[in-house]
Structures are given as structure tokens and as C-alpha cells.
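Field reference: sequence -> structure
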Amino acid sequence: MSVTLIAGLGNPGREYAATRHNLGFVLVDALAAAEGLKWKKEPRFESETARWDVRPGVTRLLVKPQTFMNESGRAVRALLDFHKVAPDACIVAYDEINVAVGAVKISVTGSAGGHNGVASLLEHVGDGFVRYRLGVGGTRPAGMDLKDYVLGKFTSSESLIIDQKLNTFVEGLRLLLDSGPARAMNVLNRRDTHEPEQA
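Structure field:
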């Protein structure tokens, strides 16, 4: 059986629900809703998971680590080990300060770039997982601490962009799953997606 892990990063708890740092959760929630999948609490993996059986022998497992962001790698590692999945069959969706709001970039290597969730993944999983980077950058006030910014809520104009782009984010993730990183990078990394779509 072929298993692909799709982990959306975020922090558990209602107080974090609408923050920039939880955009990974928002994406996997949207994909699960589109596919009619149900979330299941998995305490042994410190995660919530939603199983997506695409066709016989092909399963995609959506994951929301419940460890808090800076220990995300621990939960993902446990699931990779249990399902015998290699890091290159793992997609991790997360907020990216170096990408404009509404844009998506895909990469397969690199540093954590100051992202504690990615740092935890590099520590526990190693490099090689596919990064689905959802832009939250461009509006941090001068002098504001990065942690305060990512744990803050989207502005009303940013929320509008995210709402308008959510289907695009989901379709980009489908492209990545169906066609692989090289094809998805070629399409998505070139696309200028930070402007709100016209009604």
C-alpha cells in the first residue's frame, strides 16, 4: 500500500484558531471538508488524523499535530514510523513569513527559516519532506517580534485574501499530490497569487 502523509502545522486550542501560525491547520481542514473526511483523535501519535483512501492501495493521511508548533516533528515522526513512510512521501503545509499573503511556494530542501515547526521537523524527521509554504508575510509592523506577529490574527484585508485563495491552496495541494513536487513547483512557484481575485 502507498501512504502519503499530509501534515498541516498549527497550535491546538481555540485561542490559536484564527492566527497566522495556524494556516496549515486551515488548509488540511479545507481539504478534509472537500473530501468529506472525518477527523479522528489519535492520542498515541499526539495528532488528529483523517484517512483519505483515494483508490485501492493508495491512501493519503491528513494530520494535525496536537503537540504545539515547536514539537510538531515528534508527532510526524511517530506517524511516519508507524506507517513506514519515507520523509519524501510527507508533505508539510505551514505559514511562511517570507512569502506574500495569498501566495504559495513549494520546496523540498532548506533551513527552518526561523519557523519552529519546521525546525522540529528537521530535528526529528530530517530533510527531504515536501514543504507547502503558505504566505503570511508582507505586513509585519516595524519592530514587532516575529513570534508576536505569527501568533497574531489576520487583518480583515488579509482574511479576505485567505478566504478568496483557500480553494486555490487546496487545488495546489491536489496538484502536488497528483503530479509531484517538480510539476507543482513549476506551476505554483511562478504564479503571482498575492492579489485578491476579482469577483
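Note: The helical segments are 23-34, 72-83, 116-124, 146-150, 156-179, 181-188.
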